Amino acid sequence: MNAAAAKTARPASPGSFLGRAITSSTGMKLVMAITGLGLLGFVIAHVIGNLQVFLGYEGINAYGAFLKGSPGLLWTLRLGTLALFVLHIWAGVRLSRLNHAARPHAYVKKKYRAASWYSRYMLVSGTIVLVFLVFHLLHFTVGTVFPDHFALRDPSGRHDVFAMMLEGFAIPWVVVFYVVAMVLLFFHLGHGIWSATQSLGIWGGRWTPAMMKVGLALAVILAIAYSIIPLGLFAGLVPDYRSEKAASEQQLQQQQN
Ligand code: HEM
What we know:
About 80% of the residues lie in helices and about 0% in strands. The protein has 11 helices and no strands. It has helices at about 5-10, 15-25, 25-50, 55-70, 70-100, 110-140, 145-150, 160-170, 170-200, 210-235, 240-255. It is elongated, with a radius of gyration of 24 Å. The termini are far apart. The site of protoporphyrin IX containing FE has 20 residues, from helix 3, helix 4, helix 5, helix 6 and helix 8.
């Protein structure tokens, strides 16, 4: 062994082997796939919860109040989702760096170009979804974007999630922004769901073309289900809750007098 090789050689230990396995390209793909499928579970549950807005204010406000009244559950869900997001982004950035560092020789250039295009496409669509998410949290969870919408209360004194959504999606640019973000989410999920099943080695082989279609179909359903919320509220597809609320507040005032 020459002096330079001796200097760089490290003793093999189980810890460093595990570390190298996890941070290798295959390890990163597994982290991306597992966290991506976890986030897909969140995205499915979240749209089911949000679609309740079409049933009126009671269900969605009661759901919001239940979560806020169960801080243990709320923070477990929040921290779990945050961990999934952080790991997913970390693995995505690292994978793209590894792909970049492993630039091939001319003879495999074609295959490399396709892989590199997909990884860049996932990185760009993922980054735009992340920008949307930051805006979205400031809009609906922190209340910095429209504080007057966030401060609304329903007749039972609960945080008025329903009216907050109705007010927010009465603004055309907000509707356009959400719908564009959902289209980008579709592009990300359209490739991501299939890619995750391949990385995990499930439904590979002869199932591959079918899984591609299943991933695309799920992404289309989710993008439509999410988009009809801002579009439906903007188009007035829910009863005008604000006049209903004003009437019930007036009734309450009359009873008090
Ligand atoms: C049209 C699309 C969407 C609508 C109408 C919507 C609606 C909402 C609403 C109303 C809240 C606040 C819930 C409450 O205060 O009780 C919320 C929170 C949240 N949304 Fe969305 N959402 C949409 C899309 C998304 C997408 C695509 C993601 C993820 C990629 C997402 C991630 C979150 C997260 C992480 C929270 C914070 C939950 C918490 O309070 O801990 N949302 N969303």
